[in-house]
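Recall that a protein's primary structure is simply its ordered list of amino acids. Everything else, from secondary elements to tertiary packing, is in principle encoded there. The following example makes that idea concrete.
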Amino acid sequence: MRLKLDENLGATCIRGLRDRGHDVDTVSDEGMGGAFDADVLAAAVGASRALVTLDLDGRRVTRS
């Protein structure tokens, strides 16, 4: 499975998924740390990856 992991998921999670054969890319790998959620989602969709995140509050989804 092709995944993009948000910055709130740690190295143990990344390693575990990669060890199980998943194609894992991270927000940090792409220099997107601190980016708006909408931008992270757009990058994941653009790369045909499912976004995995623990961010449930949606505070950064839109710019104010």
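The first helix runs from residue 11 to 19. Residues 4 and 25 are 5 Å apart (CA to CA).
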